[in-house]
């Protein structure tokens, strides 16, 4: 019998909104954060305004720190969430979700005001001392990152959260495992104020900064990945610009996640190095490269919605939805948790609500006769398809064997070998 997360009973908690779309005043009475007027790209941010919670003056930062009565160290996942709350990547959130917002997103995939939202964004803790009403300094090492004014504290029903968000409460799902073993017993909602951007080995521009570098009058197609980009990936996102859904002169924003993913994934810093050398090698004027401080849940369809929403805030009008996007397998049976097209289906069904056009990814294969073509075309023409599995590629990489250039870029292979 498969292991499941032990059930936890829900308790009543405060119902203050700290996470709904920005308004003049919210229910706990504090002013909504200043939102940036920088709307360089043609895409409207999720909820209508791009949130910016970062304090800009040293005096304001010192005052915010002085108001804190405790301090906490952020986990790597919390650090990613904080950065995206502060810089507007999670717009319209202005803080960690309270119990009302959390339960609404878990149960209905929407905020209390009805705005679609893929996955809950929460602050977790095991501390009995942290209580609503406290203002706490959040740090990464010695660096102050943000303050949070806690509004409520509740015990989540983790099995229900996993079942609704990941489609299963089985602990062999990486997301369920994370919720069960990494997250604390309690969740807390609260208003966030930004102090400093985290220092990372890879630069992560804010949504406003990314928007400023994108064309104002062209479609922007987002490509999400969490692994090094190989030849098939490159062909996929460059050919997406030829899709009938994309306007003339559209561009691609390659926007890899460089935060925590699965335990056996290539580290974010190494992935970043592969992207940088590939950017140099290809030098495509219609391809933009930026990096996202996001921690993967491997939540399949729900995560596709989350990624589309985030990229909307970064100025993207379209989003490439891959086969089995953000999919995962059971660590015990090896069986897939999601169907190959589940993410594409949910993206298509919710495209209008999101305001983002999904672009289905092409199923490309490499042929000796014509290079990369769609699988359907290869079969219709009777072309000879060449295959190289990921397992075989990793074996060849470790063994120092030559990697065929139709499969991987030389520059990427070199980085992977140097960091293996």
Structural commentary:
- This protein is an alpha/beta fold and 420 residues long.
- The protein has 14 helices and 16 strands.
- Strands 3, 4, 5, 6, 7 and 8 form a six-stranded mixed sheet that branches. A five-stranded parallel sheet has the order 11-10-9-12-13, sandwiched between helices. It has a three-stranded antiparallel sheet with strand order 15-14-16.
- The chain is globular and about 70 Å long.
Quick rundown:
Helices cover 31% and strands 16% of the residues.
Number of strands: 16
In helices, the fraction of residues equals 25-40%
Structural class: alpha/beta
Fraction in beta strands: 15-25%
- Give the termini distance in whole angstroms: 37 Å
Outline type: globular
> Secondary-structure element order, as H and E?
EEHEHEHEEEHHEHEHEHEHEHHEEEHEHH
- Please outline the major beta sheet: 6 strands, mixed
Unreliable spans: 1-39
Number of helical runs? Answer: 14
Rounded mean pLDDT is: 88
Rg for CA atoms: 22 Å
């Amino acid at each position: 019998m498969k292991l499941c997360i032990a059930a936890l009973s829900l308790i009543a908690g405060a119902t203050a909104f700290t996470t709904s779309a920005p308004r003049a005043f919210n229910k706990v009475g504090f002013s909504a954060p200043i939102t940036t007027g920088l709307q360089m790209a043609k895409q409207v941010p999720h909820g209508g305004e791009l949130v910016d919670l970062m304090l800009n003056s040293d005096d304001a930062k010192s005052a915010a720190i002085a108001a804190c009565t405790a301090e906490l160290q952020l986990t790597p996942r919390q650090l990613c969430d904080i950065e995206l709350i502060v810089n507007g990547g999670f717009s319209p959130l202005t803080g960690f979700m309270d119990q009302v917002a959390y339960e609404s997103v878990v149960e209905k995939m929407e905020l209390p005001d009805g705005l679609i939202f893929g996955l809950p964004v929460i602050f977790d803790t095991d501390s009995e001392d942290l209580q609503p009403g406290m203002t706490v300094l959040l740090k990464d090492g010695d660096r102050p990152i943000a303050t949070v004014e806690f509004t409520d504290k509740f015990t989540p029903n983790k099995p229900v959260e996993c079942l609704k968000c990941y489609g299963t409460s089985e602990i062999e799902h990486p997301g369920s495992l994370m919720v069960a073993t990494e997250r604390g017993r309690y969740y807390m909602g609260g208003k966030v104020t930004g102090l400093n951007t985290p220092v990372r080995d890879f630069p992560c521009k804010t949504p406003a900064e990314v928007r400023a570098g994108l064309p104002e009058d062209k479609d922007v197609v987002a490509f999400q990945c969490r692994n090094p980009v190989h030849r098939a990936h490159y062909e996929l996102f460059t050919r997406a610009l030829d899709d009938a859904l994309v306007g003339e002169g559209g561009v691609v924003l390659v926007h890899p996640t460089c935060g925590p993913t699965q335990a056996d994934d290539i580290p974010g810093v190494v992935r970043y190095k592969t992207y940088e050398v590939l950017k140099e090698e290809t030098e495509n004027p219609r391809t933009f490269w930026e990096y996202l401080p996001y921690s993967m849940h491997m939540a399949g369809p729900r995560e596709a919605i989350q990624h589309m929403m985030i990229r909307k805030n970064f100025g993207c009008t379209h989003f490439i939805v891959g086969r089995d996007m953000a999919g995962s397998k059971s660590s015990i049976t090896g069986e897939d948790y999601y169907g190959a097209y589940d993410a594409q289906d949910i993206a298509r069904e919710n495209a209008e609500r999101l305001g983002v056009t999904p672009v289905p990814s092409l199923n490309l294969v490499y042929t000796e006769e014509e290079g990369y073509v769609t699988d359907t075309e290869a079969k219709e023409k009777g072309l000879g398809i060449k295959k190289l599995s990921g397992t075989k590629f990793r074996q060849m990489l470790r063994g120092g064997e030559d990697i065929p250039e139709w499969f991987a870029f030389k520059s990427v292979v070199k980085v992977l070998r140097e960091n293996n």
